[in-house]
């Protein structure tokens, strides 16, 4: 797989460059800032400069750059893994339109492990139904701006999909002075140090507790998941895909 890596100087771009399996190759990178010292491939500031042949575009740049990525992919008609977050509704609409012409994998979280976690949570919620209370604790580094995390929202969606209904979401419990509602899900956010990403989901019954957790030891998991997604995407026809389509079983 010959990759054109957009956002190659960012955290995810560096992870992909550092952890790329030997059977694949990054033939060029695109970045607004040029830093060639640590790379074995050419880096361009604009897509117009790219002249090398490639099989797929993997984008982990910034949301403001997404429209340029979409326009370029529309021109070259190559598959796209879009891992950039924070896209505007207009940009998501552009991606959807483009997916009628090329294969696109679009996900807010490209971790393969988190994708498996979401599947497990959906199945667990469906099996346990209303007999268990559900609580989520998520932990991230001190510099993370949003709380709860984007992954927490994906977790909530997976649980509610399994339950077949929406639930009341309670963020922490203080200064609330009332007992727990059986139709609620508690989400608790911790911030500190250099924690990459940790999510702990508890299904709490009268006599037992079932816990499903995901602990990321580095941010590389998102880059590695994008590579795996790219491998699968090359075998797909045009369409809009998610990380669910990367799983080796049909959900």
Q: Any overview of this molecule?
A:
There is one protein chain. The strands form two sheets. A seven-stranded parallel β-sheet has the order 3-2-1-4-5-6-12, sandwiched between helices. α1 links the parallel β1 (2-6) and β2. Helices cover 30% and strands 25% of the residues. The chain is built from six helices and twelve strands. The radius of gyration is 20 Å and the shape is elongated.
Number of strands: 12
What is the C-level CATH assignment of the largest domain? Alpha Beta
> What percentage of the residues does DSSP assign to strands (E)?
25-35%
Strand order, main sheet: write it out: 3-2-1-4-5-6-12
Largest beta-sheet details: 7 strands, parallel
Structural class: alpha/beta
What is the averaged pLDDT score? 91
What are the low-pLDDT stretches, counting only 5+ consecutive residues below 50? none
User: So, the CATH homologous superfamily of the largest domain?
Assistant: NAD(P)-binding Rossmann-like Domain
Total tally of structural domains: 2
The run of helices and strands is EHEEEHEHEHEHEEEEHE
Radius of gyration: 20 Å
Count, helices: 6
**Helix content bin:** 25-40%
Distance between the termini: 26 Å
Gross morphology is elongated
CATH architecture of the largest domain: 3-Layer(aba) Sandwich
What is the CATH topology assignment of the largest domain?
Rossmann fold
Which key phrases capture this entry?
251 residues; alpha/beta; Rossmann fold; Dihydrodipicolinate Reductase, domain 2; 2 domains; seven-stranded parallel beta sheet; five-stranded mixed beta sheet; 6 helices; 30% helix
